[in-house]
Amino acid sequence: MIARHLYLSLAGLAGLASLGLAQDVLFPHMHGLKYSELDQAVKLGLTTHVCKDEEEWYGMTTADFAKYKAIVIPDCMCNTSLTTIKFLDDTKKTWSPAVTGNMVIIGTDPSFHAKWYNLPGAYAMMRDSISLVSTGKNGTGMYFSLSCYYQRTAAPMTIQSLSEIGHFQVRGNLSHPCLNNAHLVAKSGVMTTLNDTIASNWNCSVHEAFSEYPRAGAGSFEALAIALNATGLGQRSFADNTTGIPYIIARGATPLGCGNNITEPAYNEECDNGPANGTPGDLCSSSCKCLHGVIAPGTCRSNVTSSSPSSTYSSTQFSNSGGIACFNKFLIYQSLSDRDSTLAIVFCHRRTFIIKLLGYLAFFHQITKGPADRHGISSRAAQPLSCSQRVFARFTQQSQAFKPLRFSVSTTGNCHGYG
Ligand SMILES: *[C@@H]1O[C@H](CO)[C@@H](O)[C@H](O)[C@H]1NC(C)=O
Ligand SMILES: *[C@@H]1O[C@H](CO)[C@@H](O)[C@H](O)[C@H]1NC(C)=O
Ligand SMILES: *[C@@H]1O[C@H](CO)[C@@H](O)[C@H](O)[C@H]1NC(C)=O
Ligand SMILES: *[C@@H]1O[C@H](CO)[C@@H](O)[C@H](O)[C@H]1NC(C)=O
Ligand SMILES: *[C@@H]1O[C@H](CO)[C@@H](O)[C@H](O)[C@H]1NC(C)=O
Ligand SMILES: *[C@@H]1O[C@H](CO)[C@@H](O)[C@H](O)[C@H]1NC(C)=O
Ligand SMILES: *[C@@H]1O[C@H](CO)[C@@H](O)[C@H](O)[C@H]1NC(C)=O
Ligand SMILES: *[C@@H]1O[C@H](CO)[C@@H](O)[C@H](O)[C@H]1NC(C)=O
Ligand SMILES: *[C@@H]1O[C@H](CO)[C@@H](O)[C@H](O)[C@H]1NC(C)=O
Known about the structure:
binds 2-acetamido-2-deoxy-beta-D-glucopyranose, four-stranded mixed beta sheet
């Protein structure tokens, strides 16, 4: 039984890759203040555009956002009101599909600590994070300081403005006493100035700690910095034998222990091919995640599994074992865990596609361009659609984990033009 159909026009995204970049980094209006993040971006040699008012941001299309190497949502000087980032939440369906590049989400307020205390660590945090997100590779990146928006709340809160990217939860009430021992647990060649000493002892270094974030698949996130030895919800262990709770997370960084040619699932590695990680042709990313899905720890699914199209609905079924299937124009992969669900993929003409998830446990929620969701589905839609690209399928869990194991392909209905 078909639970739900979803129609998504990708026409608006067509040809994004061919658009020239306007400036390197986009800043929202955000109270019209001048933030240290802007100075740091300029010092890094990046060109910047600051929205002249909120209306400018609201008027932007996905293609407009995708013109930038990075979007920087600065720390609004330790503002505690979520109203400050309402613009981000209101427009998330527009900007999220553009953000396919590196991301850094910061559970503290570097602009505040730079302005009022001139802390070298605050400048270094902004500088390194902006460097990571504006590499210009893998699409538009994003820097997002959570400022002090969630710092008062002891219970985990979902970051609603990021819901198109994935499921993120943070909690606050962390100042009894302050979490002041910061420790970096991931690295990147472009992050050269921040270290544990200068990230620590900010009175308080940590305002929001992450209890949940997407951790599976090529589009997922790594802890970049933790509140060392902090205990409770969100506490994790890292490859250097430290424990703590992440307060800065990133997409595009290399976690400690990744790159030693040993797959360590305990540290959230799906693969580790040593120096080959992230190099062309290797199936393992520089973050030790399988680019096209994982079969078993250390064994990544290969890029392309070809299949032949069928002409009737449900007539072609693949024993997919949680992996990837390429139907000439799409790659879909997933890693959930209920074998009774079935995913059907239908290709249509004019860049419109429908994905129908068959199965009583789940219904199809959304197709969008973005990283892994909370259930480990990690794929993305891109233009032009080809086997080297991935379709994003995001599902809403109903009652238990589900895992479509079989695909069916159809060219019936109002669709045609199957590859
Ligand atoms: C925080 O932002 C809100 C709305 O964006 C504003 O009304 C408030 O004055 C700000 N508070 C501080 C302390 O800056
Ligand atoms: C915040 O933490 C303190 C100390 O751990 C605790 O006493 C207080 O009840 C917490 N506040 C909330 C709102 O949970
Ligand atoms: C951390 O960075 C500061 C400022 O650049 C530097 O003085 C210090 O030596 C560094 N500490 C370590 C442990 O590298
Ligand atoms: C921490 O707070 C103390 C007491 O208010 C102050 O003297 C010190 O300068 C602060 N340090 C930092 C790094 O903010
Ligand atoms: C963190 O915990 C470890 C192990 O208990 C201890 O050796 C280390 O000194 C602690 N570090 C800090 C900064 O508390
Ligand atoms: C972490 O601890 C394990 C077991 O105690 C040890 O084998 C390993 O060498 C340690 N790793 C580091 C980086 O210290
Ligand atoms: C990585 O490990 C494999 C075996 O697990 C080995 O064949 C290969 O030579 C190693 N590569 C490096 C660079 O050490
Ligand atoms: C681009 O993404 C791939 C796959 O996730 C990753 O291996 C690579 O490091 C990324 N490139 C950059 C510059 O972040
Ligand atoms: C996947 O395979 C296709 C052709 O087989 C190739 O063009 C593409 O670069 C590969 N993608 C990756 C990420 O290796």
